[in-house]
Amino acid sequence: MALGKLFIGLKVRELRVASQQTQSQFAKRIGISTSYLNQIENNQRPVSAAVLLQLADKFNLDISELSRGETDRLLSALSEALADPIFESFSPSLQELKLISQNAPALAHALVLAHQAYRRKSEQLASLDHDRENAPGLGATPYEEVRDFFHFVDNYVHALDILAETLATGLYGAGFDRRSALVRHLEKQFGVSVAFAETNDGPLRHYDRDRKVLTLNRLSANPTQVFQLAHQVSRLHAAREIEEIVQRANFRTDEARDICRIGLHNYFAGALVMPYSEFLAAAQKLRHDIELLSARFEASLEQVCHRLSTLQRPGSKGVPIFFARIDRAGNITKRHSATKLQFARFGAACPLWNAHRAFEVPQGIIRQLAETPDGVRYLCLATQTFKGTGGFAATRTGYVLAFGCEVSYADQFVYADDLAIGERSRFEPIGISCRLCERGNCPSRAVPPIRGRLQVDPDIRETIPYRLA
């Protein structure tokens, strides 16, 4: 596992405090000087390979779990918050932001939440007309609260994943497809009978608690029916565990708790249909071919991409990928990244990203080699998909599924086989969003960056009517 330079001062300090040792005692135990340990704990120096091995040997530190993913996500959110014009007189360096994210993550989270509350309040005040008394309360919306909950747990919920995988063992026996197996399980274990209804405008799933009848829409696709069956299994099998997770999350509102419960039941359903170990092995064997994975697990392409983004189990992680679902207006309705590429929390995505071009392609997967302003290069993949049921008159909503990885992992994806990933000139420049991107010569820029001064020359008109100072 390529870890690079690791600044894990907070983790080392936690190990020392837990062992009830002074810096001098702890340093002697792992064979370094007290001054070096002090620098490590304050993230002034990275840990060396020798120190890592000593920590693993003496204090059972799991080296495989050391990852910069959590810090990268927090650093991205903090950087975006501090790019707001209200902080114009404060310009912390990248190193300062890293120190805050690494040494004081609770403070960084608090600042991100405070900025989110400020933005929400500003938007509410701007939209008020006459009835100010009916303005909603301060803070993030319940949906945003839940979105951030999944984002900062790395989109992986260990207790539910293990519970679902344990249940899946032996559930899909020979001769039974997933839909039949789940129908049998509901009937045998919970006395729930499954019925089907044909309607263009009806719900995908309806559960009659009194009669213990689950009704599915027959016109929905088979992967949708399988997922809704698994969701119902979750509501009957994992309700207690999910309630414990929701209560520990300390959401501010009942709405957020309700939304999170749905999200966690959906998480369990995905883990039940695509059990972790089996799915990870298949993803590696099939080299992340999402169409083959979809056929093997009776899952939709979206379900497969989402599941790939959850492969973060300690000691058995999959390839770190990013995943997003984008609608035609450019809204990112689902997002997660285990890579350095972190999606903007506000505003639209970069127009140079191939995800937008996927709406022009009726089918198939389009590919892009891309490089962000920080010099990191990615394999970006995108495909269009539709949701809906029924025939000609039924409403069908189109989305683009965007996913990919850093190029160092591209050889594990079938989509990279004929791409010249070794040639830097093949990589297109992309950013997070226009409001955060500092590239000054981008002809696709939609709005100026929120940091930086503009230069306007009335005698010169280029693609955009200003230059960045």
Describe the structure.
With 469 residues, the chain is an alpha+beta fold. 42% of the residues lie in helices and 13% in strands. It has 17 helices and 13 strands. The strands form four sheets. Strands 7-6-10-9-8-11 form a six-stranded mixed β-sheet. A three-stranded mixed β-sheet has the order 1-3-2, covered by helices on one side. Helix 10 packs parallel to helix 11.
Provide key terms for this protein.
469 residues; alpha+beta; six-stranded mixed beta sheet
How large is the count of helical segments?
A: 17
Give the strand line-up of the largest sheet. Answer: 7-6-10-9-8-11
User: Terminal Cα separation, in Å?
Assistant: 41 Å
Strands, total number:
13
Biggest sheet descriptor: 6 strands, mixed
Whole-angstrom Rg: 24 Å
Helix/strand-derived category reads: alpha+beta
The portion of residues forming beta strands comes to: 5-15%
Would you list the SSEs in sequence order as H and E? HHHHHHHHHHEEEHHHHHHEEEEHEEEEEE
